[in-house]
Amino acid sequence: MLTGDWDKLIRQLGQAGERLKAEAQKATNENGRLLEETMVGHFEAQDLGWVPLKPDYLAWKLREGLSEETLFATTTLLQNIRYHERSWHEGFVGVLRGATYQKSGESVVNIAAVHEYGTKDGRVPARPFVAPTLAECEPQISQNYQEAVVRAFK
């Protein structure tokens, strides 16, 4: 025969759903901020091994007074990398929809996609920043959710 405070166990189980939801929300937000921070850090450090800029394009950027860094003409793309909470268990990390480059009016999302995947004609090589960041952060994301479950049932 099992002994113990069965009423307490029943109360804990009754509250587990809400506690788990709250802890999952904390982990989701923590993971979103981790991805945003890591992605921005890679832009700033230029440490993802991207294909170097072609000499002609680099020369043009310098003549135009733009940054010589890869994936930077201006800081618009970098400034639009954000985490957005969608619900207690879902978030979005990436480039904000609707953001455009002031000078050209081009969609920042479209430019980000070109950088991530390259162009079909190969004129712009893939310089991924989303996929490598997700792969790098995946172990920590998993750990954060595991810890959330443990906290929910403490």
Description:
56% of the residues lie in helices and 8% in strands. β1 and β2 form a beta hairpin. The two termini are 24 Å apart. Strands 1-2 form a two-stranded antiparallel sheet. The relative contact order is 0.17. It contains 5 helices and 2 strands. It is mainly α.
Q: Count of DSSP E strands?
A: 2
Order of secondary-structure elements: HHHEEHH
N-to-C terminal Cα separation, in Å?
24 Å
Strand content: 5-15%
Biggest sheet record: 2 strands, antiparallel
| Main β-sheet, spatial strand arrangement | 1-2
Record the SSE blueprint.
Layout: H1 6-45, H2 55-63, H3 76-79, E1 81-87, E2 90-95, H4 108-117, H5 130-152
Antiparallel strand pairs: 1-2
Key features of this structure:
154 residues, mainly alpha, two-stranded antiparallel ribbon, 2 strands
Quick summary:
The protein is mostly helical and 154 residues long.
